[in-house]
Batch of 4 targets.
Target 1
Amino acid sequence: MVFGLMTLFGLIVMPFLIFIAGGRVLGPYTHGTSQHAGALSLVADYYTGLVHGSAVFWCVALGPAVLVLLIRVFLTGWRSLPTARRS
């Protein structure tokens, strides 16, 4: 269930976070001849990249889910380590 929620987060929320962060760091998003395209232009380009199978766009979409998965694997490994004996 967590993996599904994080995948939805990557598919729906990440493009808007990228738009906000990119706008602050890199300046306004341009789309073709439009110098001030909005967030929905970036979202449309994002989904177009996903449909075309671009690895970069899929890394962004699956990034939150993979991060949660890696954290869970790390914690499972950490918990399985033997604890030091206390005297």
Target 2
Amino acid sequence: MSQNQHNHETCKADLIDRAEKLCSSRGTKLTNQRRIVLQRIAESHNAVGAYEIIERMASMGARPAPITIYRALDFLLDHDLVHRVESRNAYIACTCNHATSQPILLVCAECGLVNEVYAPSAALAVQATTTALRFTAKKIVLEVTGICADCVA
């Protein structure tokens, strides 16, 4: 989807609402610190590193310690509320409920936009390959780097 056609305020509100419901259903808590970290990540669909999150938070008040941010990120990762963009050592907010399939992250090399998409056949192909090779996958990361439609235009 073109970012020009995207209502990001609704996107952020839906994310926080989903995070609250998910935490409540799991008996965990979306603390104020975790919520703020999630909100800073969700400011755009570009990947953001931990130290950029710290800078974003510091511009609004006290500068949090890196360990505080990493603990919040671990929680958000464990609850599928953010994804780690391995190639960028950064994070994006999870925009979908992916209980049934592994997302593929499309990373724009020009503007840094990261789109989370689902292609169940790709995830099944990876699973079939690892099974055929009797390889036990511990973590599967599917990232594709290229140029987004807005940058090509």
Target 3
Amino acid sequence: MTHELETERLLFRALKTNDISHLANLESDTDVKQFFPGGVSTRKRTQDMIKRFIACYEEKGLPCFLLFDRQSQEFIGRAGFGMTEQGEVEIGYVLHKKFWGKGYAVEAVKCLLKYANKNIKTANIIAYATSDNINSFRVMEKCGMHYYKTDIVQGVECRFYKISNYN
């Protein structure tokens, strides 16, 4: 397996067009997507999402990665960057539920924030989660992000966090 980033427990591989086999189950899991404004995705919506993520990388230099366990090579989830409608660079992640509560999200986000500092030209990196997703707030806070506003995303109230990209 080729990878582009790694941490103590994670391997990050750039998303490819044929990664539907990895992402279809993740994106259609009702438990995993319960806190996402758009909810679960069909296979078609997931394939369209993959195309958008790849285009975002090609056009704006904002990558999305698949995450794998370094020891077992098991697929854990996805994490990466995107661009909001307001032109802000956002960071996000989605993990299979068997990996929740084990520090993988914090490990992934911290690695990506270091990547952004060296490779993405923007003053701040933002993240958001629905207002009832307390666990995601903790991830953002553990990664040094700070709450700065509440806003509506796809009809759902969300809390927004940010961190300076220049250290």
Target 4
Amino acid sequence: MGARLGSGNDDELTETHEINVTPFIDVVLVLLIIFMVAAPLATVDVPVDLPASTATPTPRPDKPLFLTIQADKTLSLGDTTTSKEALGAALDAATHGDKTQRVFLRADKTVDYGALTEVMNSLRAAGYLKIGLVGLEAAPSP
């Protein structure tokens, strides 16, 4: 709270009920400058060479459903070869229509990222949203 001085009567001080917003504006402007400088640094494109995973493996279900992409980009559901167009029907037959079942996706090392993404999009279009990516275990580096 502030008091007004010099209004003529020195014995009686009146309070002013105005908020001083200048310090608030100063803080907001400093934060704006900080975010303007930091935002471009958060969106840097860096080429990445992804290493093998050393994470602890999750327990395997009793009867996992494996979808395999081979080097020649053919799809295999379990041991049965299927086409990309018939993938949804084959999954429905294998899971008995249970779209909440996790599908484990395995791909050959030579399969490009675009082909892997197309298969994942086909799984999503068929309604299977729980997808687990399968990889080899790597020994942790010292």
